[in-house]
Specification:
alpha+beta, Mo/tungstate-bd_C_term_dom, 9 helices, binds adenosine-5'-triphosphate, 2 domains, 363 residues, Rossmann fold, elongated, ABC_transporter-like_CS, ATP-binding, ATP binding, six-stranded mixed β-sheet, OB fold (Dihydrolipoamide Acetyltransferase, E2P)
Amino acid sequence: MAEVVLNQVVKTYGNVYAVNHVSLTVADGEFVALVGPSGCGKTTTLNLIAGLIEMSGGDIHIGDRLVNDLDPKDRDIAMVFQNYALYPNKTVFKNLAFPLQMRKLSKSDIEAKVLSAAKVLDITHLLERKPRELSGGQQQRVALGRALVRDPRVFLMDEPLSNLDAKLRVQMRTELKRFHQDLQATVVYVTHDQLEAVTMADKMAVMNGGFLQQYDSPKNVFDNPVNMFVASFVGSPAMSLVPLEVVTHGTDVALRSPEGWQLPLSAANARKALTSTTAKVVLGARHSTVKLHTTQTPGTVPGVIYTVEPTGDITFVQVFLGASVVIVSLDPSVIVEPDQKVWIEFDQDKIHLFDGATEMALA
Ligand code: ATP
């Protein structure tokens, strides 16, 4: 396996920067997920690594080789796409063997590699079937097998599970994770499903508008989003964001809402809030760190319930604080109703503060 290094990689289409000066290193054996909203540049980045499209600028190294000018077939990569692209008239065995025949391997070498990949993916019993005789999950395993037999330095995967139904996706997610653990493979994986990214990846590369926003472990991206975009993109439901104004009373610092309520800040949060470039800050809070009170309590701020969404083991409640919505999670045994007046308590140790002008996290 090999590391993949992108250095200031750019891809433009006319005036559009599909990928805008992206630099990142995927370490040898690491599983990296590229995530971000539709059109953010994930697939373009993957295709640039694969060599399927030409870069407008920058360098890409795979292992110790600069691959900028290498054809896809010379990059030692294997791609797995969402539509599997299996040959419908060939058996599974022949589907797996085909890339090796193209490389002119001996018959016995081909057989050994195909059987070994089939064993890893638990498809030995399917080798004589045609793709149409397989389930979606089995077809996906064959597609993985075809990548695996090539013994690539890097696996590039573009939404490989998106054609599967919800249950199978979860199952294949576990299998892919296992596949990665067993092979210690270097994997770059595009997905719009952040749960896939969080559960499988060692690192997430969060993109927006062609820019790399944050590149870190899923836990760090979740716990310490660098800006409001990442904060609102990662996590489901998204982090609640409440625009407020910093006000000082002597040495005390509070956040004031347009409606007039004030939230006194702890010393640590006060220090952060005062580093904002203007008096505007945005308070961020994940649902699990917000408490809902049905009576007024010191340190709480007033709101009105908008919706109550039971999901089974957890109930999500959307509360309007003026014009902002805050999501709170409750135990299903707690009964609340739309339009009910409530009070919200933020955990000062868990809130995030963002600069209202630059949208960057205040540290
Ligand atoms: P999705 O999740 O919808 O697949 P993505 O993050 O993979 O999106 P890309 O396909 O990489 O996004 O596209 C990035 C940007 O580049 C988009 O604005 C897209 O419209 C543009 N783009 C991609 N390919 C081309 C092309 N061949 N010609 C012109 N613009 C393109």
